[in-house]
Amino acid sequence: MADNKKNPNEVSDTGHEWDGIRELENPPPRWWTNALYLSGLLVLVYFILYPSLPLINDSTEGLLGWTMIKEYKENLAEVEAKRAPFEEKLAAMTVEEILADPDMRNYAVGSSKVLYGDNCAACHGTGGVPAPGAGYPILADDNWLYGGDINTIVETLAKGRQGMMMAHKDTLKPEEVDSLVQFVINASESKATEAGWKLFNDKGCVGCHGADAKGIHALGSANLTDQIWRFSGEPEEIRYTILHGVNDPSDPQTRVAVMPAWNEKLAVKLEALKWEEEPEYDGTETQRLTETEIKKLAVYVHQFGGGQ
Amino acid sequence: MADNSMAVQQASTANDSNAIYEEVADWHINTGEEKVVAKRLKGRFRLRKWMGMSVWSLFFLVPYLRWDGQQAILFDIPDRQFRFFDLTVFPQDIWMLSLTLLFFAILLAAVTSVAGRVFCGYFCFQTVWTDIYTFIETKLEGDTPQKAHKFKQAPWTFDKTWRVLTKHSLWIAIALLTGLSFCAWFTDAYQLWGDIFTLQAPMPVWVALATFGIFTYGFAGFMREQVCFWLCPYARLQGVMYDQDTVLPAYDAERGEPRGKLKKGAVDGSKGSCIDCKVCVAVCPTGIDIRKGQQEGCITCGLCIDACDSIMDKTDQPRGLIRYASYKELHHDQNVLPMYRRPRVIIYSLILLLALSGIIYGFTTLSPTEFKVIHDRQPLYVRLSDGSIQNKYTLKLLNKTQQPITVRYSVSGLEGASLHGMEDEVIVEPGRVVPVTALVRAPADVTEDGLAPITFEARVLEQPQLDTTYNSMFMTPE
């Protein structure tokens, strides 16, 4: 370093010279060389502390024992630790209690987004409205086949749903089918004719859809008098439903509408509670979602805008 | 500078590469191998430097100000708010911070274009802390390079040992206090002291203390002017903000040259005013020779002006051989522009004014609440069984006041529209946002084109002056 006090002409050179410019043997600044050595040292320290040398199946472990996946798992555990008090509280609450408690309700809704996206949105759509014409029930409206109160939603989720409407292609004459199609359209606009009602009653539709054609929750039959269509309001589609039914095993062309069971064990438990009995499990019940997850999803579906 | 460029010119015309080497040898550059021990003299600029430095006492003291039982100025990062006496600034108002940063960045440019590196010379933390550190050092170890050298060479006596120990203890104490004061802006200052002394402070505090401690001690204690020379980007940045009207501490070579030693205490008419006493070099905190012209090492602190003036007084010559002067002044350029006609000054002032009015506007119109309505996108609307249409919204009200508020929502501006699921009032705690879901129902024929304006009203029950509205849209199938 003291060299740059001297006249550079007096410094020895490497013997290289270009156009009179000589390459002098001045050392680089000491801080610079020190920094270079220090960075080398840092590499060494890094090699010792962190996983670095690749071996055949894995790599050297490093003194700190740090790995990326470990850090990820730790972070995940941290998130879960933060959620744990909520989850525990949630598990101990009934769905009605969750709905009534704004904090828990917000937590349930906030933590269900992914759950709903993974399990439900494929059919029912992100916001509870499926793609038009896909034939899945809308969750965001106020029309419910089985009932829109929070407990019924839990039940629907737990045991799944599979309604049944007989195919009528063999039992109804074409003109009767025409009349019924017209009746259903008229009913949704509250202008069904006397003749229509008579046919509705005579052909046994009343058995499932109810005397007022508003559907029966216990059976999951559709309300024919409102402006919401389970499948479609187009005359051709209504005809198809009447001819081939829904989930009718005797008709290969029947409409398929199945809600899978997400927690059969919970379904058994809920059924037993209804009759005030001890639940009897046979050990084969599937549990695709936990009871807490079902509760959260019920709250999530309830807040789409149609919950009752 | 002029001499050097001439030397370069000669070298290229004569094609004599040795001239380049000679010129390089002439430029002495200290890359840290020499310790600069600057002599401390009293004077006008020394006083200005103390005044500039004293601004930094705010950095140490302001965190202890209290207001309404809370820290008056606090950057509360965990709660994401900035408290400034009665005002609370939330991340939503971050644009005001941008304007503040813009203001100071342009202020730096403006001041530099008028009077050079004023920031470097009088305010920069590197300058200020270094000055305090060297103040302690020169008091303990001698205030000239000779004395300092002698002190260093002296055997380790008791006297030397306590002086060195005291110096480093004071340095470390200042370094740690710097770190602590920095932390105090971000957390309750009084509690911070307690936490540190009971070793309860959170990790970031220790990290900040260690970082500030190490860097303050290292930069102000050891690296000093080397930081200005080789680390600081501003040093280079500010150099290009000069023009020929910028006033800088400069040596009046015309008057000073040819320099020469003073003989028998009398000014000899055959020489220039400079008596080559080198006091200007001795007092320079970056160790440069101002007589070589403007150079990157000059932080324009003006201490050489004080030094030269004292010598001029002693030798019965007029002051100002080294003075704040512009390039034009030194070169007898008559075309000196007044301040208000210099384009840089005008443009910088305009930007400063804009930023400042933005900040003032922001602070005076800081709304105590912030109300947002977000229309649900999926689905845009839902048809209900009676044929009416339902839209779903998320209403978010941010409470920037210090008290909880109770809010009641309603809708208006759309015939037949009604709000559902919002029967209860919503209580919003200070500094919080409470999102609520609102369902609005309206007949399907409420609009022809599928889109109708609707207004949400938020009524604050405690303070009706906080009532706000938000204009949104109601969507129907077309």
Question: Key features?
Answer:
heterodimer, A: 308 residues, mainly alpha, Cytochrome Bc1 Complex, Chain D, domain 2, 3 domains, two-stranded antiparallel ribbon, 12 helices, 2 strands, disordered N terminus, B: 478 residues, alpha+beta, Immunoglobulin-like, five-stranded antiparallel β-sheet, four-stranded antiparallel β-sheet, 18 helices, 18% strand
Write the layout of secondary structure elements.
The complex is a heterodimer of chains A (308) and B (478).
Chain A: E1 13-18, E2 21-24, H1 30-49, H2 68-92, H3 95-100, H4 102-119, H5 121-124, H6 150-159, H7 174-188, H8 194-202, H9 205-209, H10 235-244, H11 264-274, H12 291-302
Antiparallel strand pairs in A: 1-2
Chain B: H1 2-14, H2 17-26, H3 44-54, H4 57-61, E1 66-67, E2 70-71, E3 73-76, E4 81-84, E5 87-89, H5 94-115, H6 118-123, H7 125-141, H8 145-153, H9 158-184, H10 189-197, H11 203-223, H12 225-231, H13 233-239, E6 247-251, H14 253-256, H15 279-282, H16 303-314, E7 322-326, H17 327-330, H18 343-364, E8 369-375, E9 382-383, E10 389-399, E11 405-412, E12 418-420, E13 426-428, E14 433-442, E15 451-460, E16 468-475
Antiparallel strand pairs in B: 1-2, 3-4, 4-5, 6-7, 8-10, 9-10, 10-14, 11-13, 11-15, 12-14, 15-16
Structure, explained:
The complex is a heterodimer of chains A (308) and B (478). Chain A is mainly alpha-helical and 308 residues long. Helix content of chain A is 47%, strand content 3%. Chain A is built from twelve helices and two strands. Chain A has a two-stranded antiparallel ribbon with strand order 1-2. Residues 1-5 of chain A have low confidence and may be disordered. By secondary structure, chain B is of the alpha+beta class. Chain B folds into three domains: 1-30, no CATH class; 40-366, no CATH class; 369-475, Immunoglobulins (Immunoglobulin-like). Chain B contains 18 helices and 16 strands. In chain B, the strands form five sheets. In chain B, strands 8, 9, 10, 12 and 14 form a five-stranded antiparallel β-sheet that branches. Chain B has a four-stranded antiparallel β-sheet with strand order 13-11-15-16, with no helix packed on it. Chain B starts with a helix and ends with a strand. In chain B, 26% of the residues are buried. Residues 1-14 of chain B have low confidence and may be disordered. At the A-B interface, loops of A face helix 2, strand 9 and strand 14 of B.
